[in-house]
Amino acid sequence: MIRQLLWLFLVLTGATVLYSWIEAADEPKQKPVERELVPDFVAYQLTRRSFDKDGNLSGQVKAAQMAHFEQLGQIQFEQPAYTLYEDRQPRWQISSAQGVFYQDNKVILEQNVQVDNLHSDEMFKQIQTEQLEMLLDTQMLQTDHPVLVLGQSFQIHGQGLQADLAAQKLRLFKHQGTVYQHENQ
User: In what helix (H) or strand (E) does residue 16 lie, and over which residues does it extend?
Assistant: First the structure.
């Protein structure tokens, strides 16, 4: 009788273990929960100034909102406006709807990007595009997107651009047309 009870107990225990194992195998595996990346901090109506080695103002960025992501190594801006200085005077202002600043002093600007020459007596007044990469250290700009270059009495349409703001040089990758406007004096 004890042997029969022992066998009954072993069969029931085995059946319970087998049932539990089958139940666990039938349960759908839970997918890892994707977490939304949350910024380390957010600032509103931000102004940040940069100075050269002599203590002179060399650049300034203003933005409606800034979100800092330490894990990604980037700062995301809403409505950024970068002002670059030359000889203590504002020289260029680059603005857009969105921007991302990377730790290597590279900025990617997107949506309604506009580069304004703040000196009134220059040939090129403004550059417009939808996306632009800017290296702050060297003041180099580059894009592969369509561009519009506005100057004194002309408009240049093209595809792709490389510009060195410090050297005042501009290179259009593909020229698509120029419109000249005659001004009556």
Answer: helix 2-26
For the record, the structure tokens of 51 come out as 């100075």
- Residue the block writes with tokens 């600043």: 101
Instruction: In whole angstroms, give the CA distance from residue 105 to residue 144.
Output: 20
Q: Can you read off the two tokens belonging to residue 5?
A: 């009870």
pTM, two decimal places: 0.74
Residue 28 makes CB contacts below 8 A (sequence gap 6+) with none
- pLDDT tens for each residue of 106-135: 999 999 999 999 988 778 899 999 999 999
Q: Which tens digits make up the pLDDT trace of 53-96?
A: 888 888 899 999 999 998 888 999 999 999 998 888 899 999 99
CA atoms within 13 A on the CB side of 99: 29
